[in-house]
Amino acid sequence: MERITQVLLAFGIQLGRALLALLIQFGAPILALYLVLVVPTLFGCLGYSDRPGPGCYGLSSRVGLAEIGQHATAMLSYALFAARFLWPTAFLCTLVALLTKWRPRTPWVRSVFLGIVGFIGTGYLTAAAGWYFALSGIGLLVVATVGGAVAAGLVRRLIAPGQAGWLRHPRLNPDPLERAFEPRFVWSHPSSARSDPSQRAVDRVHSYASNPRRRTRSKAAQCGEEC
Questions:
Q1: In whole angstroms, what separates CA 194 from the centre of its chain?
Q2: Is 33 exposed, middle or buried (0-12, 13-18, 19+ CB in 10 A)?
Q3: Alpha helix (H) ranges present in 59-189?
Q4: What CA–CA distance (Å, rounded) separates 52 from 62?
Q5: Which of 71, 90, 114, 194 could form a disulfide with 26 if both were Cys (CB 3.0 to 4.6 A apart)?
Q6: Cα–Cα distance between 199 and 193 in angstroms, integer?
Q7: Rounded distance, CA 77 to CA 88, Å?
Q8: Segment 177-203, tens digit of pLDDT
Q9: What is the distance, to the nearest Å, from the Cα of residue 76 to the centroid of all Cα atoms in its chain?
């Protein structure tokens, strides 16, 4: 029962990490797109526009905090519209991370591969969504870079090998019969045996017991002393 509980707990942890990676991979590009649409207006620039087109046109004294707030609220609908396009990339990056969890073993190779998948997938789908509201090329590159960086960094770390090694911990109450019959012979290097007097005595006893000539000679010497 304890083993089943540990397996279920490990599965729950792995599932939670995979869902967290999926959520981050889905939400980070949407947040980046929203910031691309909102932040440039604070400096007199537009990250999107059909007419006159994306670019910087300078600040206007007629633009106040109320207008900026209205613009930020309006851009929220644009980001939510783009979210309808970006969910396949999040699932794809999470699936690739799960399939490459054990191969390749070199972390940077897996990171580069996930980064390429995240960059291309996010960029392609962002371009499809940005076509409807004339997203700038720089904004597209920013969102695609965020998608690739999240896939290469956070998703790779959340879905990584070696997270269930704690299941192989030793048992707290081992079988006493198993402990009684387990081998207790410990190999020691000859140099350590020379430096340890007790080990030298043990080796001398073993050598005496394994050499019948020395035992015969010792008995003869003992008999000569007694006679």
A1: 48
A2: buried
A3: 65-99, 107-130, 137-150, 156-158, 176-181
A4: 19
A5: 90
A6: 5
A7: 20
A8: 445 545 554 455 555 545 556 666 666
A9: 32
